[in-house]
């Protein structure tokens, strides 16, 4: 088991311990892309302590050094991916770019803030959570089209948490985008049941149980 695999449940444990995993017994959560879910992941809680931030950044470094060592710049997707991308770029002394799902409606109306180092530069894209994949794929498209005459070669996308929907995975495959993550919904759900993270009210709530089963069936 490599470092990323061992960190998978460690991050999920931290998410539960820091109240980053929300369970709705009645009204479901609305996720990006219109997905309705009985659970919600707030990955921002991983930034709360130096220790947790350090473990996640170490995972990002391990991944980049192992899979994408020839990197010219790091791109953070606003807003959740910016802090992680900043830490990663600082650790590797690399240029940092900020990216948005759509061009801004003010100032220079950029979708990509910062300069692509050179035409054909190798970049990695960092986001905190991937749900519908729309924001990240839009950023990848913008990087490939380029800025100021310089296009970027997107080596891969990395997220902290991935809902890992097959339909979204297919979109990434069709776009020719490699994506990796530290942890995912399957791990969150399995860890929650195995470690009694759901309240008795939740487990006894027929609507919640049925919603979990239906959600897994619809998106798995």
Descriptive report:
- With 220 residues, this protein is of the alpha/beta class.
- It has a single domain (3-219), classed as Rossmann fold, CATH 3.40.50.2020.
- 43% of the residues lie in helices and 22% in strands.
- The chain contains 8 helices and 10 strands.
- The chain has helices at residues 3-17, 50-67, 82-92, 134-145, 166-175, 185-194, 200-204, 206-219, and strands at 21-23, 29-30, 36-37, 39-41, 73-77, 96-99, 112-113, 121-130, 152-162, 179-184.
- It has a 6-stranded mixed sheet with strand order 7-6-5-8-9-10, with helices on both faces. Strands 1-4 form a two-stranded antiparallel sheet.
- A hairpin with a 5-residue loop joins β2 and β3 (36-37).
- α1 packs across α6 and α2 crosses α3.
């Amino acid at each position: 088991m490599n470092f990323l695999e061992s960190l998978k449940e460690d991050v999920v444990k931290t998410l539960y311990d820091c109240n980053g995993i929300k369970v709705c017994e009645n009204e479901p959560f609305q996720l990006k892309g219109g997905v309705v879910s009985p659970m919600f992941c707030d990955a921002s809680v991983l930034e709360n302590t130096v220790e947790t931030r350090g473990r996640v950044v170490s995972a990002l470094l391990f991944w980049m050094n192992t899979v994408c060592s020839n990197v010219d710049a790091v791109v953070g997707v606003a807003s959740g991916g910016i802090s992680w991308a900043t830490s990663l770029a600082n650790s590797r002394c690399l240029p940092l770019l900020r990216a948005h799902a759509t061009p801004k409606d003010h100032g220079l109306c950029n979708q990509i803030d910062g300069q692509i180092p050179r035409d054909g530069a190798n970049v990695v894209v960092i986001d905190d959570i991937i749900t519908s994949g729309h924001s990240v794929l839009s950023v990848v498209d913008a990087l490939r089209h380029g800025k100021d005459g310089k296009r970027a070669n997107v080596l891969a996308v990395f997220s902290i948490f991935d809902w890992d929907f097959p339909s979204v995975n297919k979109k990434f495959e069709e776009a020719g985008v490699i994506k990796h993550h530290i942890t995912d919904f399957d791990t969150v759900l399995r860890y929650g049941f195995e470690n009694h993270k759901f309240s008795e009210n939740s487990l006894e709530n027929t609507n919640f149980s049925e919603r979990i089963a239906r959600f897994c069936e619809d998106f798995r």
